[in-house]
């Protein structure tokens, strides 16, 4: 008898949701950075555990939204939780019950009505065990989690145990994806995300938030390689200058890093061309949202 279902990973920005998704899938499907608000839309990764197919849904971090993009991201995250069979709330071991975690706990009541909610205390590599015990008790006093796991998504501690438990929770039924599929995200979007990750890692302060990357053209070549054209949208001339860098060195380095990762992911040669365009109002353009996989109206 086969099983299959959806597992939503939710939590504050930077909790390690994307890191966990990638580890579960065994490949880098969702981008990861040390900065908050890296993931912008729901990203599905598929993992197999025995006869169970686990479809992990990585979501944007949950935080107090201020701008349209924030609101669309937070709506996508809660929507992911509401659509799942099991929800896993990730909290950071060393940060404990923050204000942000409190706010998520308030929203969990409704979500728990139709599904199981488990707690995963992540980044246990950063704390000593007494802290974990106290945090487990505190969290479980606030919300009736069906199970608590202590993990390090980065180092892999406790992840097998979590995966095995999740496999048992999946409803009986046919698999939802071919056995060898690891992600449900168009290649052009994966390509845009990789470039956005490299930009985010290189740029400082608020800038990563103010840009978006789109794959405009994807051309298959006879020699087996592909030519990919991407546009980086920014809001101001000054931002364009920062992204280009002195004599174009920043954009060159980003382009090289993104190309190398894409080549590894696709196992073929890639020619990547990046163009930076100033678009003062892109955060208010519905097309930008659909390209990101978000619902523009959710940002109202
Ligand atoms: N020490 C430690 N760091 C971790 C662990 N898991 C994730 N990280 C780091 O935490 C940072 C954030 O990880 P992400 O996976 O991008 O977090 P996220 O929850 O997806 O963040 P958003 O997409 O912004 O909501 C990265 O620098 C990770 O390397 C862990 O188990 N231990
Ligand atoms: Mg993420």
UniProtKB/TrEMBL annotation:
Residues 11-18 are annotated as: G1. This is GTPase Era. PROSITE patterns: G_ERA, KH_TYPE_2. GO terms for molecular function: GTP binding; GTPase activity; ribosomal small subunit binding; small ribosomal subunit rRNA binding. Residues 58-61 are annotated as: G3. Belongs to the TRAFAC class TrmE-Era-EngA-EngB-Septin-like GTPase superfamily. Era GTPase family. Residues 122-125 are annotated as: G4. Its main location: cytoplasm. InterPro entries: G_ERA_dom, GTP-bd, GTPase_Era-like, KH_dom-like_a/b, KH_dom_type_2, KH_sf_prok-type, P-loop_NTPase, Small_GTP-bd. An essential GTPase that binds both GDP and GTP, with rapid nucleotide exchange. Plays a role in 16S rRNA processing and 30S ribosomal subunit biogenesis and possibly also in cell cycle regulation and energy metabolism.
């Amino acid at each position: 008898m086969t099983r299959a279902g959806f597992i939503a990973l939710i939590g504050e920005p930077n909790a390690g949701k994307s890191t966990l998704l990638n580890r579960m899938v065994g490949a880098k499907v969702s981008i990861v950075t040390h900065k908050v608000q890296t993931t912008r839309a729901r990203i599905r990764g598929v993992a197999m555990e025995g006869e169970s197919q686990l479809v992990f849904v990585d979501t944007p971090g949950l935080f107090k939204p201020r701008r349209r993009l924030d609101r669309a991201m937070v709506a996508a995250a809660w929507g992911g939780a509401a659509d799942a069979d099991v929800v896993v709330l990730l909290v950071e071991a060393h940060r404990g019950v923050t204000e942000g975690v409190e706010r998520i706990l308030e929203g969990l009541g409704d979500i728990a009505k139709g599904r199981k909610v488990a707690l995963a205390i992540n980044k246990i590599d950063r704390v000593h065990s007494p802290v974990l015990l106290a945090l487990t008790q505190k969290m479980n006093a606030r919300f009736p989690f069906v199970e608590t796991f202590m993990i390090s998504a980065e180092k892999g501690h406790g992840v097998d145990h979590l995966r095995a438990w999740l496999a048992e929770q999946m409803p009986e039924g046919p698999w939802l994806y071919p056995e060898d599929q690891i992600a449900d995200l168009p290649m052009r979007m994966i390509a845009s995300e990789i470039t956005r990750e490299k930009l985010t890692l290189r740029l400082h302060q608020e800038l990563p938030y103010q840009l978006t990357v789109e794959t405009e053209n994807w051309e298959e070549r006879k020699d087996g390689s592909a030519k990919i054209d991407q546009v980086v949208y920014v809001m101001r001339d000054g931002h364009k200058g920062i992204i280009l860098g002195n004599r174009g060195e920043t954009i060159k380095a980003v382009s090289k890093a993104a190309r190398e990762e894409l080549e590894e992911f696709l196992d073929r040669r890639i020619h990547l061309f990046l163009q930076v365009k100033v678009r003062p109002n892109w955060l208010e353009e519905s097309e930008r949202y659909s390209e990101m996989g978000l619902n523009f109206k959710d940002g109202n």
